[in-house]
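Posting here for the record, re: 2-acetamido-2-deoxy-beta-D-glucopyranose.
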Amino acid sequence: MVHLGVTAVLATLVTAVSAAKVPFNWNNIRYFYVFGDSYSYVQGTEGLADFSFIGDAFNLSYTPEQLLSNEIEYRYTAGNGANWPEFLTECFAGLPSNCPRQLWDFAFAGADIDPNLLPLHHNFSIQLTTEVSQFLTYAAAVLPHTPGETMTAWWIGINDTGDTLNNATITNFTDFWETEMASYFNAVQQAHTTLASTHLFLTVPPTDRSPSHLPATSPTSQTLNSHILLFNSILRKRAGAFALANPDSTVLVFDAHETFTQILDNYQAYGFNNITGYCECDDNSYFWYNTGHPTERVHEYLAAALEGFLLESSTWHREIGMKRRYKEAK
Ligand SMILES: *[C@@H]1O[C@H](CO)[C@@H](O)[C@H](O)[C@H]1NC(C)=O
Ligand SMILES: *[C@@H]1O[C@H](CO)[C@@H](O)[C@H](O)[C@H]1NC(C)=O
Ligand SMILES: *[C@@H]1O[C@H](CO)[C@@H](O)[C@H](O)[C@H]1NC(C)=O
Ligand SMILES: *[C@@H]1O[C@H](CO)[C@@H](O)[C@H](O)[C@H]1NC(C)=O
Ligand SMILES: *[C@@H]1O[C@H](CO)[C@@H](O)[C@H](O)[C@H]1NC(C)=O
Ligand SMILES: *[C@@H]1O[C@H](CO)[C@@H](O)[C@H](O)[C@H]1NC(C)=O
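Prediction output follows.
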């Protein structure tokens, strides 16, 4: 019995030591991994045109050589310009490994969370759970992920909330989003065991204010609005639960919904003059590039807001803030 007790204490200690958290500091991050949909995907020379950095459902596998020689194509995204992961990392084109902050972007345009829960948009589509299993199988061992220098970003749910808007078989959306989140966070957990201990989650933006759903007074826009708010509140709850269950992780939730809302509500101050229509052209005075995707300028603002958030969330910043407050208190 005594032996068992000692073993148990040692085991607890070992767990506690191995669970020691590497402090998050945005300035130290060199490897930025992304999983998500068209709002986040970048085009790769080895990818499916208009959909991915690398591979598709018919072509899941790739070699280390293909991955490492794969180049990001400049301004080739869903918004006809650079997008938020590119602005945030300043990795806009070429080999990710040549960027000071490497962008490894496995988002796939049109992705939902799980092929077992919602149908694929196309037979070649890759959903989030598949993005992660594909990454773990073909990329994880090849790409760098030094602790403290690595983080993952997750932005998913835009297509899920849109695709289910008129799905009559879903009678309880709390239940449905919980089921989707179980699948979502199962994928995060799988990535967590291999990848970074820092995970950034973005909330679903107000696509009820996109040209496909306007006017805002329409029933579909209002239903989508309430579905998105519910999705986001369950996302926050699940992210909190994930952080509690993984004490070695740093979990950050960025409210992209709030950023979009702030810009849309004050659009002229941000240099936009049209937030209801769209222009599939090179005109950043439009908020929307097409019926469902924002323009490059929106991505640039989003990245700037995110960078501020990541710096504020960095350990050195918190320490300086605490020291400053301590000094002020004296
Ligand atoms: C599969 O994808 C790789 C890049 O990942 C590409 O080189 C190859 O041509 C693709 N094959 C087919 C059949 O699409
Ligand atoms: C989901 O993704 C597809 C492919 O990118 C896009 O065409 C579609 O408009 C998206 N749906 C929503 C609701 O955003
Ligand atoms: C995928 O879908 C396209 C059109 O929707 C079809 O032409 C093609 O045969 C399908 N491919 C396979 C392998 O099922
Ligand atoms: C509607 O949702 C159910 C899940 O409850 C899913 O199985 C089904 O494929 C969805 N239908 C469409 C058209 O997306
Ligand atoms: C919907 O599902 C949730 C979670 O399972 C449950 O708490 C709630 O009572 C359900 N709502 C209705 C109207 O059945
Ligand atoms: C916004 O753009 C659309 C499409 O070009 C146009 O029809 C609409 O009149 C514009 N709205 C405003 C307020 O300028």
